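yo, IS1647-like transposase is done. seq:
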Amino acid sequence: MTPPAPVRPQGGGRRRADDRNVLAAIVFVATTGCTWRQLPPIFGASWQTVHRRFTEWTQERVWAKLHRVVLDELGAAGELDSSRCAIDSVGVRASTGGS
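structure:
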């Protein structure tokens, strides 16, 4: 579902931060209203990495795809009326621009 990890031609470097940990960090920022810089280190990724991945996933429309998958899964299980669901940016307080 997420775009493939970039491959560094020169090799080496740090291991890519785990997508699940980064997703948890993004959800933390979105639900608490803290800034990217205030992100606690417990997520195992720097705020810069989390913000960069958020930006990459936004550009790749990962959020819209994830929303569609969740609606389809819950709808197939008869647990959700998708006509009553919508994503509205008013409820998301995540700051942008790395501040």
